[in-house]
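Researcher: Before we compare anything, I want clean individual predictions. No alignment, no superposition, just each chain on its own. First chain goes here; please echo the sequence and then give the structure tokens.
Model: Echoing the first chain and its structure:
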Amino acid sequence: MIIAVLFNSDDPKFGGYYGPPIRDRIFATGVLQSSSRHMKVNYGDVLIYSHARTSQEYERIAEATYFGTTWSRIKVERIRASYMRETIWAWVIQNVTHQIAEDLDAALSSESSYLGLHAVDYSYPQHLALYRNSMPAYCRIIGTVCMLPYSMGNEEEIDDSESEHLLTLGFTKVDWEDRGAHGTIFDDYDTLEHFQQVRDVQAVFALGLPEGDYEAEELVMLMEDLNPRLFNTLGAAVRALSRSQNEEDIAHVGISGRRYIEQLADVLFPPSAELHNGRSVTKDKFRNRIWAFICQAVAPSIENREEEIRRRGLEVDRLIDEVNSIIHGMPDKTRALKILFDLAKLSIDLLQLDPAATRRPYDAFNDNILKILRGH
């Protein structure tokens, strides 16, 4: 799940300087580093003032933001006492388990500025506006590795003092990565409609993945890094399946499934006129291109490397054949649902092979970048 961890930035001990001290308090707990889970963090002031013209409107938005949630460890009286008096600072952490959230809450409970935490849903208007679209990215955490972002190739944003300080807070490695166009004016995957589609896809995948919603949440996060446009195709498949009443409806699930595999190939291993291991990897050879990605992504040091490559490649072949069968054969709703589950499992497996290689921070936004640069 996504959580918002809330602090009173006007706590007297901060003296108006609160971002770094709160960062230190969170990392000093060691909860995030010890989880070994892949998480992303945004942070910033909760800008309710920017959306409220009256005290009544402020209170309405605040109540909806902090209490319109499915799971919470909010300190109710302290939150409400802050209304119109104090600014709340939040860390919004993506891909957290309930246990990590509980451990973090317990570890911060004695902190005077801590106001609790709650689950966040970007398909909920207040959470999208205040937590996703108003807060910059701070870092990516994978156990004791921390990646700090800079945007659109602007390496002037790199702050060596920040990375050096994080090495004193339980991290063994701190590095910088280009976030590309994510979160910039070129990023139009910031709407309620998009996140409602993401929510629907995640809900379906959670039914078929071994770790349920926790694994589906990680898939969502990795796919956002790779290319959020993939959710359009998966969303079409989920909608077609939920509304299906006959063979033609289910065949549309297969069509969307095949388009998803083709688009996944496009971002994992873009088409090339050059042969790869003697195989064509042109636009229409999407099967070969996924095999090519697997060959590149499976590390040379892995035991039984050739068998690991073959196992994944054969699963790609099987799923392509399965998808084609519900388009051209005898469609079955139960079978179509299982194919979607298997596509989710395959996607997680491929995206986790090499997380750095499957981050494509510009791909989804190239058209918008070109339009703006050309003045259209």
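Researcher: Okay. Second chain, same rules.
Model: Second chain and its structure:
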Amino acid sequence: MTESFRRSGEYEYPQGHGPQSAYPEQQQHTSSPVNPEWPPPPAYEPAQPAVAAGGGHDGHGGGDGTAVLAEVPAQPGPKRRAKGPLVLLAAVAIVAAAIGGGTAYGIQELTGKDTAVSSSSTSTNVVPSSAKGTVAGVVAAVNPSIVEINATSNAGESTGSGVIITSDGQIITNNHVISGASSIKVTTSDGKSYTAQVVGTDSKKDLALLKLQGASGLKAATLGNSDGLQVGDQVVAIGSPEGLSDTVTSGIISALNRDVTVPTDENQQQGGGGRWPFAFGGRQFNGDTGSSTTTYKAIQTDASLNPGNSGGALIDMNGNVIGINSAMYSASSDSTSSSAGSVGLGFAIPINTVKSDLATLRSGSQS
């Protein structure tokens, strides 16, 4: 945080009022036998008569707490407003900012690589300073933490995405991506394939936690703070739409706290054309959500999302994952229709919702 301080200039007393005493409070002692313009003599004879400089709040001390000696003029001249306290306040603000930045850096450095890395705000910089604020910089920093998920069930095979949150292979994704799956295969950005097991699920929040078998040394994503988001913030989405791994799109946050309703019954988990059904604003999209549903507050984005993006990351421009992409509206399942494709209406589960649910998912809860 940058503090702005206006430095005091030099001010003279208004004309007609004349010079003021160096110790105005002593003018109240009218019974003093000495001239009230001057202080009483000290108990000892100083080498030089002393007056206060630096401007303490009572006019008797320096701004830094040190008395400064100066010659007393023959006639009191115009006083100058002190600059000392303002310089001190500016220094304090600078020190406070340095301490704050150092603390954030220290916390990030002390965070173990085998646990999910979390930041206290979206200002944590995962992207190198040379590429800060660029989509390419975000992709280079975060793409190694995004995986493609292929789930096989009795109904067939579905493709989704996931986010690595620990170096030993814990993966966050949507529950609807792996619901009912008999086997799950996960492919990392470097092309390595792993078999994954379901650790825990939460259908009411549409979240699932997977664990890769035999994985180590993976790059965990940095989880940001979705409470600090604002409409208009730039974001990047990474996932595997239609099985096209490492696909990147970008846009902005177009709305916050949208009430999105999704099915919890795995028999309703896939709409027409493999699309994920959801309800919003009293209307249903991508098929019927059924009678067993749940509603959560979502981040709305115009970054292009398509089937297969589910479970992937929505990322801020500092490289923090601030949401898990979960639902997107497609006007038509007919690829030949002029209305087919992304229409800039996608939704993501806020990352703070994910973080608050991690302990439950890690406990093995299946709900």
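Researcher: What stands out in the second chain?
Model: Residues 237 and 314 are 5 Å apart (CA to CA). Additionally, The two ends are 43 Å apart (CA to CA).
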